[in-house]
Amino acid sequence: MNFCSSCGEKVVYRVPQGDNRERYLCEHCDTVHYQNPRVVTGCLPVWQDEVLLCRRAINPRSGYWTLPAGFLENGETALEGALRETREEACARVSDANLYTLFSLPHISQIYMFYRARLADMSFQAGEETLEVALFSEADIPWNELAFPVVTETLQHYFEDRVHGDFPVRSKEIRRSLLQSQHGRAGKG
Amino acid sequence: MNFCSSCGEKVVYRVPQGDNRERYLCEHCDTVHYQNPRVVTGCLPVWQDEVLLCRRAINPRSGYWTLPAGFLENGETALEGALRETREEACARVSDANLYTLFSLPHISQIYMFYRARLADMSFQAGEETLEVALFSEADIPWNELAFPVVTETLQHYFEDRVHGDFPVRSKEIRRSLLQSQHGRAGKG
């Protein structure tokens, strides 16, 4: 950030009065430009004993398998964002969605949420940012070709929890190198 | 948003190529300025059969009672943010924090999270943005003087769940008028 998005003057980077951390600040129009973590939401779509995965057509991690997910937009609930991303990336509809995993990724200032949901029918197909969409049983999950640690952990929890039929919400944090888990462009998934 | 924070030129508001919604966009340096929901995190500090509330010293809802909470900062986990806000607003330390409620507030593009936690000791006091801090038993909660619907709902769930000693994570949405639940300055709680 170099310029004030409000008045166009140069910004400075310092602690504003009454605050305790550095911010981008316009001394011309007195605007503080706060920067905060972004939320990524998605679904774990389940069909009988299989789960739906998408193979990414875009970087980062192009060619790797992921759960349909992307950045939450203004004006959406977390669930609405998860359902939209599932439609956009897998052209899939789900029902009975329940919050399942929540991850903090402080190194990239992201909060990730996945909803466990029932796939409504078999009419899914690859969206614009997806190479292919497929259903996988537990034995066939391509564990070494998963795109992000949040996907791996959500699937691991799911198969563990499925044994008992109890799916408590899991709240976790993942601290990794930028390369391993960065999720692409700022603000749009 | 009027100017590009990267190069200082005027921005336009239109759908970028390959996107499906309007964004602030700089046609000079080709930067898309995404705007996304913000995350507010806080604690429900519990001491024996009482809960800790803070009376707000700042607008919005100055003079009303709230749970300690504020905007998550870059580089923090959701839990770290909740603990920091509890220190800043109530000078209180907690332990055994577990995610308890998660709210989507789409009309103000916020995600709210509260952690149920054990108050570590009685050495709490009002922080800079707080008029007073006090412990309340269920019978004494000032229900008509609570600052925000997310606080009311979190407390209601807590007292319901306490009867059975089981505190499942509650994921909800609240759609209200701006006046009733807006949470102050953009990005800093």
Description of the structure:
The structure is a homodimer of 189-residue chains. With 189 residues, chain A is α+β, with helices and mostly antiparallel strands. Helices cover 17% and strands 34% of the residues of chain A. Chain A has helices at 78-90, 149-164, 178-181, and strands at 12-14, 23-25, 32-33, 38-47, 50-56, 65-66, 69-71, 94-105, 110-119, 130-137, 170-173. In chain A, the strands form two sheets. In chain A, strands 4, 5, 6, 7, 8, 9, 10 and 11 form an eight-stranded mixed sheet that branches. Chain A has a three-stranded antiparallel sheet with strand order 1-2-3, with no helix packed on it. The longest helix of chain A is centred in the last third of the chain and has 16 residues, at 149-164. Chain A starts with 11 loop residues before the first strand and ends in an 8-residue tail after the last helix. At the A-B interface, strand 3, helix 1 and strand 8 of A face strand 3, helix 1 and strand 8 of B.
Sheet having the most strands of chain A: 8 strands, mixed
- Rounded radius of gyration of chain A (Å): 19 Å
Poorly predicted ranges of chain A (pLDDT <50, ≥5 residues)?
178-189
Instruction: Spell the H/E element sequence of chain A.
Output: EEEEEEEHEEEHEH
Oligomer type? homodimer
- Gross morphology of chain A: elongated
Mean pLDDT of chain A: 93
Provide the fold topology.
The structure is a homodimer of 189-residue chains.
Chain A: E1 12-14, E2 23-25, E3 32-33, E4 38-47, E5 50-56, E6 65-66, E7 69-71, H1 78-90, E8 94-105, E9 110-119, E10 130-137, H2 149-164, E11 170-173, H3 178-181
Parallel strand pairs in A: 4-9, 8-11
Antiparallel strand pairs in A: 1-2, 2-3, 4-5, 4-7, 5-6, 5-10, 8-9
